[in-house]
């Protein structure tokens, strides 16, 4: 599974406006709802918030991978957002989060959802890759960076 299988160039937000976890989750849910009409932004936002109540999805090193499931989706979808100054996402290392990769899976899906989480975790382990995403001048360059990194594995 490749990241570009579930992330499209129109689902990259190079400058997140939100300054809190809740604001960013809402912003990303609204963005996906604008791109994918079958997505209900409110329902997605609620699913993401409920998942965050279990434990923060900020895995450290400036990365968060919030995820949720919806009945209204039939394929895995992703949105990548960037906060250059960083934001408090309740990260396990206590550091600011700069890259937020939201995943939305069909309710009945487990395998694809877990494979995507594993794939993202593997890519984001590379500090150079993370820095290239943070330094990219725009969303198109961020997407191309992911395509290039994705092709290596």
Indicate how many domains the architecture comprises. 1
Helix-residue proportion: 40-55%
The tally of beta strands, per DSSP, is 6
Using the coordinates above, name the CATH class.
Alpha Beta
Shape, principal axes of CA atoms: globular
Query: Approximately what portion of the residues adopt beta-strand conformation?
Result: 15-25%
Per CATH, the superfamily is Mannitol-specific EII, Chain A
Rounded to the nearest angstrom, the distance between the terminal CA atoms is: 10 Å
**Which structural class do the helices and strands define?**
alpha/beta
SSE succession: EHHEEEEEHHH
CATH architectural name: 3-Layer(aba) Sandwich
- Rg over CA atoms, rounded to whole Å, is 14 Å
What is the arithmetic mean of pLDDT?
94
Uncertain ranges: none
Largest sheet: number of strands, sense, barrel closure: 6 strands, mixed
Number of helices: 5
Strands, helices and their partners?
Blueprint: E1 12-13, H1 21-35, H2 41-54, E2 58-60, E3 63-64, E4 67-70, E5 77-87, E6 97-106, H3 111-124, H4 127-135, H5 139-151
Parallel strand pairs: 1-5, 3-6, 4-6
Antiparallel strand pairs: 2-3, 5-6
Helix pairs in contact: 1-2, 4-5
Question: Your description of this structure?
Answer:
The model has no long low-confidence stretch (mean pLDDT 94). The chain has five helices and six strands. A hairpin with a 2-residue loop joins β2 and β3. Helix content is 42%, strand content 21%. Strands 1, 2, 3, 4, 5 and 6 form a six-stranded mixed beta sheet that branches. It has one domain (3-151): Mannitol-specific EII, Chain A (3-Layer(aba) Sandwich), CATH 3.40.930. The radius of gyration is 14 Å and the shape is globular. It is α/β, with parallel strands linked by helices and 153 residues long.
């Amino acid at each position: 599974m490749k990241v570009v299988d579930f992330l499209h160039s129109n689902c990259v937000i190079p400058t997140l406006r939100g300054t809190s976890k809740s604001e960013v989750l809402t912003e990303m849910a609204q963005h996906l709802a604008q791109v994918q009409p079958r997505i209900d932004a409110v329902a997605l936002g609620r699913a993401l918030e409920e998942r965050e109540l279990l434990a923060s999805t900020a895995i450290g090193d400036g990365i968060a991978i919030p995820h949720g499931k919806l009945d209204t989706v039939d394929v895995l979808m992703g949105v990548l957002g960037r906060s250059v100054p960083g934001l408090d996402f309740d990260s396990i290392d206590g550091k600011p989060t700069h890259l937020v990769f939201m995943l939305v899976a069909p309710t009945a899906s487990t395998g694809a959802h877990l494979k995507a989480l594993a794939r993202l975790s593997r890519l984001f382990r590379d500090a150079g890759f993370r820095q290239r995403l943070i330094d990219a001048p725009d969303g198109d360059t961020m997407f191309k960076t992911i395509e290039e990194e994705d092709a290596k594995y």
